[in-house]
Design a protein that fits this description.
The complex is a heterodimer of chains A (794) and B (154).
Chain A (H helix, E strand, L loop, with lengths): L20 H6 L14 E7 L5 E7 L1 H4 L4 E6 H4 L29 E2 L5 E7 L2 H8 L3 E6 L6 H4 L14 E10 L4 H8 L2 E9 L11 E6 L6 E5 L4 H12 L6 E4 L15 H13 L3 E4 L2 H7 L6 E9 L5 E13 L9 H5 L12 E10 L13 H19 L3 H8 L8 E2 L5 E2 L4 H12 L1 H11 L6 E11 L7 H6 L8 E7 L5 E5 L8 H13 L6 E4 L17 H28 L6 E4 L2 E4 L2 E7 H10 L11 E7 L8 E11 L5 E11 L6 H20 L31 E4 L17 H18 L13 H13 L1
Parallel strand pairs in A: 1-12, 10-11, 14-15, 20-21, 27-28
Antiparallel strand pairs in A: 1-5, 2-4, 2-6, 3-5, 7-15, 8-13, 9-10, 9-12, 13-14, 16-17, 18-26, 19-20, 19-25, 22-23, 23-24, 26-27
Helix pairs in contact in A: 11-12, 11-20, 16-17, 19-20
Chain B lengths: L3 E7 L2 E7 L5 H8 L18 E4 L2 E4 L12 E3 L12 H8 L9 H14 L5 H7 L11 H12 L1
Parallel strand pairs in B: 1-5
Antiparallel strand pairs in B: 1-2, 3-4, 3-5
The chains are: A alpha+beta (794), B alpha+beta (154).
Chain lengths: 794, 154
């Protein structure tokens, strides 16, 4: 399919500075913990110091007598507050095992950080001080730390389930029965690799914070939370607490980053709401960083077994994948679905026949629950296929870029119906890869490598690449239904033209750094022909924006942004009727451009939107039967996922004596279709790349064998600083999506999806000449040094 | 322990307050003066979100007791703009998309101004090293570095 793009955009595609910035740059913006709530009680939570233990007894007497303490509650004492357990919205299989999970543990704790006792006091320091006075007697049980050992069921965490396995989810696609097996038997080349996706801590810079403000007599309650999902949270909180949904309002004030970690319904949100209602006072809670490390979800946590079969030219003939996915102690909002989001991507960007066999076991451990973290399943999948492709290239002794070229889905094949039945909307992988190769000087680096990587070289040069698809823009509701997801994937928007021709755009997306206010105003300005500065964007308050499904999965633009365009269309359609009435012509005779309706062929017969807006407001002279006011609500359910793609390349040197890695160049060529605001697109790529690079080189949630998290602070958990990372060369190709009117795709997760495998492939590439064929993440100097030493002994 | 009296000039205004001896400067600013632009991102002095200027020097306000700042002069993010116009560093961050969620931003801006005070014409590497006490999770630092280099040229 040939892509032609006839859009004549004037606002879309320009680098607009962000309207969000002045408030954030001057301290004017209010994050949840900045809210001034006189008389609020402060919640603190005593957390389990054990990974797995029965609660024998709890003595709260001394805490209750502590100055400033208003109340102390155990899990058992609060059990009557809950209409149901905390929600998991994604039962991936009908027989998935899901242990009841309540905001405070009542009889046993299942991870270090599990909430045990809630203290309410008149100040934050008083509530924290009282935690030290609580005596809990535990009967310590054996921790279950290793996800593969957990499967043996030697120590069962949730006794009532009878097993540590939550589910097995399969995706086996065979053109003919047994064709996967046959492909492996006939393969000229086979690779069989095991990769570990270490647990990561999301570490949004703003720790979570919550405040619940009740109306004791009116019955309503407002929840302020540092969340990505005010709309989903409203529904779930109402259900979990048994409060009529119309009485719950959720507001996400300024939110200091999320990366998936605030895509959840958390115990502290429910506790604040329950206790605010019980005490008739505002209740607030703010997370300490070390608490954040234990009580906010973790990312990744998978062991991957990946097998590729290829013919003698290297053309892939089958893919087989087995995943052991660490759920942690409980299933949070979408925990079980995270590996399933990756399930469709283990063939990467390659044209493979219908010979695909994926199976994932979701397994409980006595560790912090995992859930969506930037990319959620897709960085893991991309890492596996892209690392395995390099392994295959090494086995075949051909260049890894050449191997990819032999397997890329060709641009003529789009829209491409994949083995899975999903349709990849548009793409040109070769173009993106060649652009990246040019920017990274792939040929030059290979030549330099031949000179530099001689036996005994202290510094070895490597270049790595990764070509990716990001299956994003969650999501077509019917596809989500087929995956047993508990909600739809639509997004809502309202466009309201005020009497003075100023505009309110109301969105169901909930930004926390992505700049939606700026980009959504650009879309509305382009559509309506009204200047951006006359357009306000409202969001993240369920009373102002009652319909929405929030921000995650790179969905905001390809779903929420398209919804705004659709709402603008509806407003324009209505305005057209009023214009036709005023101009005494047929609506079909009108054209609309630059905010003005004019009669085709008679441009002097025209009426501007401002006149129509005022006429719609006064309603003195509207067409018969037309409602006053100029407002439209539109809900967009995407017909497909959006499929951004690209190629990243990394050039680096490894010091073979110290294991130190120096990145010389990082190139990211991403294609997210039409870009609304290239400034923001680049920013998303920069941040995403560094988050993926951080997984490759720095970050890991380290547990000891007793299930104690050893990396609870930012001194121990190595979020990279500016001095640890390189500048990034960004470039793009533009292949519009044919499935939505803006031609857009998502970009929020692309950087992270491409980066980890790119960096690790470069490290292995640098060292493959001295026998290193794999590199665990994070590739710290010590890990790299050990790999070199161990290869030397072989 | 009994409260102690401190007198600290904050953004040009002399503030006299009673504080608990254990009160950190960041809590004094946020809780007693409602200057909530200074954020708290960790409990180990690692993240730098709470960076302010004390007597002209960029410091992490979680590492200083309010009592230690007694008699001193503090500038917070709220004190940077003059007559409704943002400080050149704030403008540079806006012009170069040096922020996304904005949580690290006040500290990052204060640290960056401190950096240029000490080294008015830094190289990219010097900017990266100079900001290593301030963590950002959104931007990958690329545009923060660009912002500081642009501010240096202003």
């Amino acid at each position: 399919m040939t892509m032609t793009d006839n859009r004549q955009n004037t606002v879309i595609g320009t680098r607009q500075l962000r309207r969000e910035d002045p408030a954030l740059l001057t301290g004017e913006a209010k994050f949840t913990n900045d809210l001034n709530l006189p008389g609020a009680l402060h919640l603190s939570i005593l957390r389990s110091p054990h990974a797995h233990a029965a609660i024998v007894s709890i003595d709260t007497a001394a805490a209750k007598a502590s100055p400033g303490v208003v109340a102390v509650y155990t899990g058992a004492e609060l059990q009557s507050q809950w209409a149901g357990p905390m929600p998991c919205a994604w039962p991936v299989t009908p027989d998935m095992k899901n242990p009841p999970h309540f905001p405070l543990a009542a009889s046993k704790v299942c991870y270090v950080g599990d909430g045990v006792v809630a203290v309410l006091a008149t100040s934050e320091s008083a509530s924290r001080d009282a935690l030290d006075l609580i005596e809990v007697e535990y009967k310590v049980l054996k921790a279950v730390v290793d996800v593969e050992e957990a499967l043996s069921d030697a120590n069962i965490i949730h006794e009532d389930l009878g097993t540590n396995k939550s589910y097995t989810w399969n995706l086996k696609i065979e053109a003919t029965e047994g064709c996967v097996e046959e492909a492996f038997q006939k393969a000229a080349f086979k690779v069989s690799e095991r990769y570990v996706q270490q647990r990561l801590l999301p570490m949004a810079m703003e720790p979570r914070a919550v405040a619940a403000v009740p109306q004791p007599f009116g019955g309503d309650i407002t929840l302020y939370s540092s969340t990505q999902i005010p709309h989903i949270l409203k529904v779930m909180a109402a259900l979990t607490l048994g409060i009529p949904e119309q009485q719950v309002r959720v507001i996400a004030p300024s939110v200091g980053g999320g990366f998936g970690s605030k895509l959840d319904v958390y115990a502290e949100e429910l506790l604040c709401m329950a206790l605010a209602r019980k005490h008739g006072l505002p209740v607030r809670w703010v997370e300490e960083r070390s608490e954040n490390s234990m009580a906010t979800i973790h990312g990744r946590g998978q062991v991957q077994y990946v097998e590729l079969a290829a013919d003698k030219s290297g053309k892939l003939t089958a893919v087989r994948v087995r995943i052991k996915a660490d759920m942690g102690a409980y299933l949070q909002l979408v925990t079980p679905g995270v590996p399933i989001l990756g399930a469709f991507l283990y063939a990467g960007v390659y044209d493979i026949p219908h010979a695909y066999d994926f199976s994932c076991d979701g397994i409980f451990t006595t560790l912090t629950p995992t859930d969506a973290y930037r990319g959620a399943g897709r960085p893991e999948a991309t890492y596996a296929i892209e690392s395995a492709m390099d392994a295959l290239a090494r086995q075949m002794k051909i260049d890894p870029f050449e191997l990819r070229k032999r397997n890329f889905i060709q641009k003529e094949q789009f829209p491409y119906t994949a083995f899975s039945g999903l349709t990849y909307d548009s793409g040109d992988h070769l173009q993106a890869a060649e652009k990246a190769a040019g920017l990274a000087d792939y040929v030059g680096i290979r030549a330099q490598q031949a000179k530099q990587n001689v036996p005994g070289a202290k510094k070895r040069l490597g270049i790595g690449m990764s070509s990716y698809f990001e299956m994003c823009g969650l999501a077509p509701s019917r596809v989500l239904a087929s995956l047993n997801y508990g909600a739809g994937g639509w997004e809502a928007a309202t466009v309201r033209i005020l009497p003075t021709c100023k505009v309110q755009v109301v969105t169901g997306t909930s930004p926390h750094g992505q700049g939606h206010e700026t980009s959504w105003a650009m879309i509305a300005s382009e559509k309506l022909g009204i200047p951006q500065e006359d357009i306000d964007v409202l969001h993240s308050d369920t009373a102002i924006s009652p319909l929405g499904l929030d921000t995650y999965g790179s969905r905001s633009l390809p779903v929420g942004g398209v919804a705004i365009a659709g709402a603008c269309d509806k407003v324009i359609d209505k305005a057209r009727l009023i214009a036709a009435h005023q101009l005494e012509c047929s609506a079909d005779d009108l054209e609309f451009a630059g905010g003005v309706f004019s009669v085709k062929g008679s441009p002097d017969r025209a009426v501007p939107m401002a006149a129509i807006a005022f006429a719609a407001f006064t309603a003195h002279n509207l067409p018969d039967g037309l409602e006053p006011n100029l407002e439209a609500q539109y809900t967009y359910d995407p017909p497909n996922f959006s499929w951004p793609f690209g190629t990243h390349m990394c050039v680096l040197e490894v010091d073979t004596e110290t294991g130190q890695i120096e990145i010389l160049k990082y190139v990211a060529v991403d294609d997210c279709g039409v870009q609304i605001n290239p400034l923001i697109v680049e920013g998303q790529v920069h941040g995403g790349v560094i988050q993926g690079l951080a997984q490759a080189l720095f970050e890991e949630a380290v547990y000891d064998t007793d299930g104690n998290l050893k990396t609870t602070t930012l001194a121990e958990y190595l979020v990279p600083a500016a001095s640890d990372v390189p500048s990034i060369t960004t470039a793009h190709t533009v292949t519009p999506s044919p499935t939505n009117q803006l031609g857009v795709k998502g970009i929020g997760e692309a950087g992270t999806i491409g980066a980890a495998s790119t960096v690790i492939n470069a490290v292995v590439d640098a060292l493959s000449g001295i026998g290193v064929t794999s590199m665990p993440m994070p590739a710290s100097p010590q890990t790299v040094w050990r790999a070199i030493q161990s290869a030397a002994k072989k | 322990m009994v409260d102690i009296k401190v007198s600290i000039t904050v953004n040009g205004t002399k503030e006299e307050k009673d504080v608990e001896p254990r009160t950190l400067l960041v809590h004094f600013l946020r809780d007693q003066l409602q200057l909530t632009g200074t954020n708290i991102g960790c409990d180990t002095s690692s993240c730098g979100a709470c960076t302010v200027h004390l007597d002209g020097e960029a410091i992490k306000s979680c590492t200083v007791l309010a009592a230690q700042a007694d008699g001193g002069s503090v500038t917070t993010i709220e004190g940077l703009s003059k007559d409704g116009v943002m400080h050149p560093m704030q403008q540079a961050f806006m012009e170069n998309h040096g922020l996304q969620c904005g949580y690290c931003t006040p500290g990052m801006v204060m640290a960056s101004i401190g950096l240029l005070n000490e080294n008015p014409n830094p190289t990219e590497e010097e900017v990266r090293l100079g900001l290593e006490g301030n963590l950002c999770r959104c931007t990958g630092y690329h545009n923060i570095v660009k912002s500081v280099l642009a501010a240096a040229k202003k």
